[in-house]
Known about the structure:
about 425 residues, 19 helices
Amino acid sequence: MKYYSLNNRDIVVSFKEAALQGLAPDKGLYFPTEIPQLPKAFFENIGSLSKEEIGYQVIKPFVGNEINEADLRQIVKETLDFDFPLVQIEKNKYALELFHGPTLAFKDVGARFMARCFQKLARDNAKKVTVLVATSGDTGGAVAHGFYGVEGVEVVILYPKGKVSSIQEKQLTTLGKNIKAIEVNGSFDDCQAMVKRAFLDDDLKGAHLTSANSINVARWLPQMFYYFLMYRELGKIDKPLVVSVPSGNFGNICAGMLARALGLPIAHFIAATNANDTVVRYMDTAIYQPTTTKVTLSNAMDVSDPSNFVRILALFGNENKALHAILDAYSFTDQQTLEAIKDIYYAKDYLVDPHGAVGYLGLKQYEEKKTEFIGVFLETAHPVKFPECIEQLLNIDIEIPKRLQEIQKGVKKAIEISDYKELKRFLLD
Ligand SMILES: *Cc1c(COP(=O)(O)O)cnc(C)c1O
């Protein structure tokens, strides 16, 4: 498989180059030159396939022989080494729990896959690679955990000061070793803008920077895995399948749409966002106009200029009509989010985190338009990651899993910066 830059079709690279570069030299996101089709038999027999086999079959065409079969199978196995339960919430509605990995958010899947690929791919590189990543909350922890101790790779994580939860902050600032945290006086979009600028800065060419955000194909593509696992878990269904994805940078939903393009029978997607509604407005007006980022309870989705949206447009050949046929986008307020958490807790006896609540609200809103469907929303983080919000709201104590208790004892280590110049100075040192 080759990948081209969405800014220039003539820039074509291998999986290895795309992964190690992160962003194309012209700032474009890499996109597969062709969309492989999985055979019919794969879907007919999916119930009898292991999750490792499913993951391998899905990712194989995208990696080609740049990682040998035994290594790739091992990478997939380690990536998916936890559970992905599908929990029924009400009639025809399910939560797909993606938070059973080491940092309790779905980003573990992409980060683990990417880190393990880098272990193989960066090995033959004489130079050290520096992974530079901006986080709105969960990416930092997942990437830090995934890359911790990986030889030949330094990790630098930028996060917006005071805008991630205390557990999220601990997860990305306490590990040490090859993991460095930078606290930015600004928003996630500011962090992301600095990262993008660093990639294009000629003075930093020697630092061999790459990205571990979902703009990196090695982090974006493996997110397809759990859409297939969801399909396997559902078994035979007699209604169209609708998936609601709480979205911020739109990497997760875009992976789902790619899975659909490979043949996975998902009838419709819902992009559920918080007050950061750039895509919702785009779907209504065909005008893409990011605004300043708003701080919300679902902080990992506080993104107003989602990087991956261009990939979604590319998947649909920039045809808005084709896009509208399979995507609805809705925005919800914090107030609605809190009410949903309460409602699901008291009426359905299920605890969701603020991101999952937004996903659930997406299904509910879609229901006003269509009733006959099987709905799944992605529960993207463990509720315990947001104790400030949930314990107060529901007046309950959430039991903190052991691995988080350990992290809370760690000591925060971060460097504070306010502008790009300071980041640059840090990277040059
Ligand atoms: C990152 C994140 C999201 C948003 O995912 P995107 O791929 O950026 O759209 C949603 N929920 C949680 C918990 C996250 O960490």
